[in-house]
Design goal:
The protein is an alpha/beta fold. The protein has 4 helices and 4 strands. A 4-stranded parallel sheet has the order 3-2-1-4, sandwiched between helices. α1 runs parallel beside α2.
Length: about 120
């Protein structure tokens, strides 16, 4: 059985180094994941170029102005292709290859509309 992974939306604003670590962890633990959309809220750092050059398998949508976190997430959700969507902060770093699949399975098994995952501050 093929694991179902969620589409991922990440809103970024001047988070180049943190976003790089986040995307590296996605590539490391979920190499088949391709439906990742980064909505860049008009960053003044090198975020857009970094995503384009280092993570061409993911989409980057640069905005011409900062429209805020919620509105940017809404734009990203409209772009996804999957049945499940993860709204992910750019300072997230995955530590295993099971978290996303388990979260989707909880949604499916419980006919749930949302699920929360354990967050570690290290």
């Amino acid at each position: 059985m093929t694991e179902v992974l969620p589409s991922i939306v990440i809103v970024s604003w001047n988070t180049e180094s943190k976003l790089r670590i986040c995307l590296q962890s996605l590539v490391k633990y979920y190499p088949t994941l391709t439906d990742v959309i980064v909505i860049d809220n008009h960053s003044s750092d090198n975020t857009v170029t970094m995503v384009r050059e280092e993570f061409p398998q993911f989409q980057i949508k640069p905005l011409s102005e900062n429209i805020g976190f919620a509105a940017a997430n809404n734009l990203g959700v409209r772009e996804v292709r999957g049945d499940f969507v993860l709204l992910l902060n750019p300072d997230t770093e995955f530590e295993d290859s099971e978290s996303l699949g388990r979260a989707v399975q909880v949604l499916k098994d419980n006919d749930a509309g949302a699920v929360g995952v354990r967050v570690k501050n290290t």
